[in-house]
Amino acid sequence: MSRIILVPAFLISAAALAAQVATSPAGQPGGSPEKKPISLILGTVAWCGGTTPPQSLQSARPCELGDTLHVPVINLDDWMNDVKDKNKLPDLVLVLNGRMLKGLSPYQDGSDSKLIDFDLRRLSDADPNGQENRAGWTALLSSSKYANILDVAVALGGVPPNFGGAKVAFNAFPKVQTVSVAAFMAALLVAFLLLARKSDILRDAPAPVGEPRRTYSLARCQMAWWFFIVVASFHFIWIITGDRDTLTSGELILIGISAATGMGAFLLDSSKRDQRQSLTTERTALVTRIAEITTVLAVVPAPAPADADALRVEQLQKQTRIVAIDAAIANLPSPPGPSEKLYLDILRDESGISFHRFQMAAWTIVLGFVFVVTVYRTLTMPDFSPTLLGLMGISAGTYIGFKIPDPSK
Q: CA torsion, points 263, 267, 269, 273, in degrees to nearest 10?
């Protein structure tokens, strides 16, 4: 009688699996494991200029925006021939200091098979990758304005992992533009300061010949303040980024508020000055006529009674008018007085330091400081909210409102 041997089912399954492994290519003697994707290996130094690599990073000419960046890749041919992963050169995205700069397609000029080139440029907003490209450049330049060395990497498809290891010398301030703009702004500021000192460009009114110069105008000083801040910020952004269309609607409204304040103050001061001049001229004419009548009435023989009575009536009328003119002139603000110091001139009127003037000057300085810091950190013009612009408008309106009834300095 034969014996029946029972084999557990799990042993049969294990034997079958082992047989499959034994017959697979990887399980055969000399079989190779599954192929891994090839990673790009970059050289240690990237550079701009000619295709000849520099001897060291310190001897390389710093790259600037607009240059062509040469990136050495040690295993570029192997990476390109990795057919399984279908690696394509145009799919690489440049990464500087961890910032993706999309839209900068790499290429080769044919002179060196181990070099890939990137044109360092900011794309326009019309480009499909324009917004991401400009955002990447703005973030990079904002954080690396004074960095001399940047990390260079590339990413396939613009997604990690980044293949890096290279360094490049970089200069965010192009020498020619920086020197030219610095010289221009310095000359403009010096010329303005000389004008402010020698002329009445910032003063409430021109001074009569031979008299001390009149007080400085708060409204005109505010206009000059915002003018130089906006012009300097515009040039600063242009030097680093190359952008020329950087002004926002906020700057236009801000400058408009400043200009309207200056215009309103000028019109009020001019109206008061013209009114005083007109009354003074009329009073002088009345005094002259009264003197003539007095002379005629004193002549012997006396004129006919009818003529004498008419002259006396005219004399009385003109004397009455002089009294009214004197009262009107007394009610007008006094003309601007001689200047003392800049900060005193812009903060005081005849009653002393005025809060509405202090408020306007304080907000102008605070927002100017915020403006400059924002431009420095983000390389963009700050677009102030309607609330802040409304605050500036209210402050300016208060200044103009108090200027109507209050006597000037």
A: 150
- The reported pLDDT for the residue numbered 334 is 64
Phi-psi group of 348: left, alpha or beta (phi > 0 → left; psi -120 to 50 → alpha; rest → beta): beta
Task: State the burial class of residue 233 (Cβ atoms within 10 Å of its Cβ: 0-12, 13-18, 19+).
Answer: buried
Compute the mean pLDDT over every residue in the chain, rounded to the nearest whole number. 81
Distance set, CA 73 to CA 41, 225, 301 (Å): 6, 52, 120
pLDDT in tens, 324-380: 888 877 776 666 667 788 888 888 876 677 888 888 888 889 999 999 999 999 899
pLDDT digits (tens, 9 = 90+) for 168-218: 999 999 888 999 999 999 999 999 999 998 888 888 877 777 777 888 888
Instruction: Taking the CA atoms of 210, 211, 217 and 222 in sequence, report the sign of the dihedral they define.
Output: positive
Dihedral-angle region of residue 49 (phi above 0 means left; psi in -120 to 50 means alpha; beta otherwise): left
pLDDT per position as a tens digit, 149-167: 999 999 988 788 889 889 9
